[in-house]
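Weekly puzzle thread! Below is a chain. First person to post its structure in token form gets bragging rights.
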Amino acid sequence: MYGKKVRLRIIFIISLLTTIILSIYIILKLLEDDVVYFKSPTEIKLSQEKITKKIRVGGMVKKNSVILENEKILFIITDFRNEINVIFAGTIPNLFQEEKGVVAEGVLEDKNLFIADKILAKHDENYMPPEVKESLEQK
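Winning reply:
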């Protein structure tokens, strides 16, 4: 029914579309592992599912909660409704301090303990990450 040229074009177009679709799927799957979600302490407490992937927890460092212990720093992140204890081993940013905004990146041990591998507090005293500001405004 169709000529040889038409069949070759159809096969080429189908092969091209299949290749493009597979490429997009593979790229999205590879990027899925690099996505880090932001959560507030309240969202963590209210979540029904167990969070096993790397996340970011943001809020304010609770007053009188920072404890330096050996090579670790322990502190509490609060959104003024709920709190989460954080353990971090590493170098803290110079601007990290009590009653200031902070975002910690790491894994959730349970709903009360967060093991951070990165602390993001590189800002001046007036800056607050947009996610933290939005979360606090909702409260």
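Puzzle host: Confirmed. Bonus trivia for everyone else. The helical segments are 4-32, 41-46, 130-138.
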